[in-house]
Specification:
Layout: H1 6-14, E1 23-27, H2 30-35, H3 37-50, E2 56-60, E3 72-75, E4 82-84, H4 89-101, E5 110-111, E6 126-131, H5 140-153, E7 161-167, E8 175-180, E9 184-189, H6 193-203, H7 235-241, H8 246-254, H9 257-267, H10 279-288, E10 295-300, H11 309-316, H12 318-332, E11 336-342, H13 346-361, E12 377-383, H14 392-399, E13 423-427, H15 428-440, H16 442-446, E14 456-463, E15 469-474, H17 479-486, E16 496-501, E17 507-510, H18 520-525, E18 534-539, H19 544-558, H20 564-581, H21 588-603, H22 607-611, H23 614-622, H24 624-641, H25 649-660
Parallel strand pairs: 1-2, 5-7, 6-7, 10-11, 10-13, 11-12, 14-18
Antiparallel strand pairs: 1-3, 3-4, 4-5, 6-8, 8-9, 14-15, 16-17, 16-18
Helix pairs in contact: 3-4, 8-12, 8-15, 9-10, 9-12, 11-13, 12-15, 19-20, 20-21, 21-23, 23-24
């Protein structure tokens, strides 16, 4: 690739590249690959050649629909743009035969669009439907048959296809019908409504207001804006289709470093790694330190069990994170940056390394970038799976080649960080937000969210949830909306018991508090934290004592052992929980748990020890009766009264995810 100039980027901004008219995108992140996306891609590639088809076959990152992996998106002339889920090699072949060549959608694989319309602005070509009711007996095939018969009666069967969907994005709303290509969506459709829909909407082009679903999608994609749309291995795709490096061009030639920091202050973006420290303030503090060199670090050491937010962004949109790092470096006067990524994320490491090499080749990394006088370069350092290295000072020690253990603060990294020089550390999600903030403005970003928590937050929702996936919602969205409206509720229609946020450092939030709007402050008030964005859903069959024990064991295993409160306190807590869970606890153990937890919170050296008691304290706070049941009657008694004696199976899966870097 040729070295880009300022004029080249300006030209791309004026004339962005349009997508080809027809294409197939296969989502190839770690989760998709583990589910068989490579096999689906190979089948599509082979059949495309065999059939002499000209349709473009593209590799992209993940849109986040983990529950439906492998996911393939298709656009052809005269057909609606659709996502297919659970695409096997056989189904991939069917997509070419039936969709691309036959102009027919496939039953039971389509993920309905969440961009629902309120007007019928085009003639209906397909009727997409699914029974989303929670009652026994799925009526999807009944409604498909009813629509087909009504279309036959009116002579429309040859023109309009009726298709069973895999997922409608709406749940417990009875029979849901979406009219394509407009995406007008009807809910709670009954048998008598079939004739009305065909007569008035399909033939007459009129929207039935009494059936229309008017609520907009809960999700707002800012961090995930390019995920699933661009090829993460192609800087050309990022430049031409995603306004790539336009924010950098604007900053270098239209804004001073101080003005960049002011724009970030207006946005009120807070660090998405968990602590929620204002991003602009961290940059300003680092810039204010007199030093010949300053460093910027991207913290990609995602260690929470079940979390895969940062991994997905790095694998799906690495150039956005790199551009965010460059903007941070410009703002604070840094010429060197490091990506610290856990080695268990080989696909993320591979794609970030390729992004760095491509940017360097294009002249966007190195000396005198775009002729601006700004010099910056970046390298990758691998984490060896130590959870404690997510803490800033431990991460810095690891990059320096030392044992990854925390150091006392102050001084903070902004004053004395990597190799003793001023250093700003931001996580993946924070940096991915920066380019779009500088393009659309800090006020635009701040228009999302709450008064004190602006913007959006990405969550990896796993556990006993119907549709595990990546979710990006505005701050202020309630936990109930995330679990039920976005992810479809609890698996197998069971009753929810609690939601755990913040990973091993977070707390357990009971069902009665699920209507709490998500923000840094509200979660803290409930005894939990935002964390980096892990969210585990648990049902009535899950034991809170076992949940607390699982997370505490994780923290004990991951403690660096440097300070006594964490090293000794965590071990003692675990021994008490083991005793209680075996029916050998005493009433005095509850008070002892509280004492040790508070001692760890006050005296531990770093965030790991300070927050490790959160799962214990929150389960004691909201589910103290379970501890009493174990103490008074033992595990058999708890099983008898509630059936809750084991931690969620998802926890064990999540632990394996962290250890092996596999799909959640």
């Amino acid at each position: 690739m040729k070295t880009l100039s300022r004029e080249d980027l300006a030209s791309l901004a004026r004339s962005p590249q349009a997508d080809p008219l027809e294409w197939i995108r296969v989502q190839l992140d770690t989760g998709g690959i583990a589910a068989g996306a490579e096999a689906a891609f190979t089948a599509l590639s082979h059949e495309r050649v065999e059939r002499h088809l000209s349709i473009a076959l593209l590799r992209v990152g993940s849109i986040g629909y983990s529950f439906a992996d492998p996911v393939v998106e298709v656009q052809t002339v005269g057909m609606p743009r659709v996502h297919y889920g659970h695409v096997s090699p056989e189904n991939a072949t069917r997509i070419l035969t039936e969709h691309v060549e036959g102009h027919k959608l496939l039953d039971d694989h389509i993920l309905a669009t969440r961009r629902r319309s309120l007007t019928l602005d085009a003639p209906v070509q397909q009727i997409l439907l699914r029974d989303t009711g929670a009652d026994a007996g799925n009526k999807t095939e009944f409604f498909q048959f009813s629509f087909m018969e009504e279309l036959k009666r009116r002579g429309l069967a040859d023109r309009i296809q009726v298709v069973r969907a895999l997922d409608m994005g709406l749940y417990d709303k009875g029979a849901v019908v979406q009219l394509l290509p407009s995406a007008v969506t009807y809910t709670n459709v009954l048998a008598p409504d079939v004739a009305r829909i065909v007569a008035e909407s399909v033939e007459g082009g009129r929207v039935l207001d009494d059936l229309l679903w008017k609520t907009p999608d809960k999700q707002v994609r800012i961090v995930l804006r390019h995920c699933g749309d661009i090829d993460p291995d192609s800087i050309d795709d990022y430049l031409r289709r995603a306004e790539g490096y336009q924010a950098l061009r604007r900053a270098l030639f239209e804004l001073t470093p101080e003005q960049v920091i002011v724009e970030m202050k207006i946005s009120a973006l807070r660090g998405r790694g968990g602590a929620g420290f204002p991003t602009w303030m961290k940059w300003q503090l680092t810039r204010a330190q007199p030093a010949a060199q300053r460093y910027v670090i991207c913290n990609g050491d995602e260690g929470d069990p079940g979390a895969f937010m940062d991994r997905s962004v790095l694998e799906s949109d690495p150039h956005a994170v790199l551009e965010g790092m460059m903007l941070a470096a410009y703002a604070m006067g840094s010429s060197m940056g490091y990506f610290y990524i856990r080695a268990e994320y080989p696909k993320a490491v591979e794609r970030v390394q390729r992004a760095i090499e491509q940017a360097r080749e294009a002249g966007l990394l190195g000396a005198n970038i775009l002729g601006s006088g700004f010099t910056f370069d970046a390298k990758i350092r691998l984490g060896a799976g130590a959870f404690v290295c997510g803490e800033e000072t431990a991460l810095i020690a690891s990059i320096e080649g030392k044992r990854g253990s925390p150091s006392p603060r102050p001084p903070y990294p902004s004053v004395r960080g990597l190799w003793g020089l001023p250093t700003a550390i931001n996580n993946v999600e924070t940096l991915a937000s920066v380019p779009v903030i500088l393009l659309k403005g800090g006020a635009w970003f701040a228009s999302h969210g709450t008064e004190t928590s602006k913007g959006t937050k990405v969550f990896a929702v796993t556990g006993k949830v119907r549709n595990a996936q990546l979710v990006e919602v505005p701050m202020g969205t309630t936990l109930r909306e995330i679990v039920y409206d976005v992810c479809g509720g609890v698996l197998d229609g069971k009753e929810i018991k609690a939601v755990q946020t913040g990973g091993p450092s977070g707390g357990v939030i009971p069902e009665k508090h699920l209507d709490t709007p998500v923000s840094y402050e509200t979660l803290q008030q409930l005894g939990s934290i935002m964390g980096s964005g892990g969210m585990l859903v648990m049902d009535k069959g899950d034991s809170m004592v076992e949940v607390a024990k699982f997370y505490l064991k994780f923290c004990v295993d991951e403690s660096c052992g440097k300070c006594a409160p964490c090293r000794i306190g965590g071990y003692q807590l675990l021994q008490i929980l083991e005793r209680i869970s075996r029916g050998r606890g005493a009433q005095s153990d509850v008070a002892l748990l509280h004492r040790i937890c508070h001692a760890m919170q006050k005296a531990s050296l770093c965030g790991l020890g300070q927050t490790a008691p959160n799962p214990v304290l929150s389960t004691l706070r909201y589910f103290g009766e379970e501890y009493q049941a174990f103490i008074e009657g033992g595990p058999s008694y708890v099983r008898k009264i509630s059936g809750a004696t084991k931690p969620p199976a998802a926890l064990k899966t999540a632990a394996a995810t962290v250890a092996g870097g596999t799909t959640p």
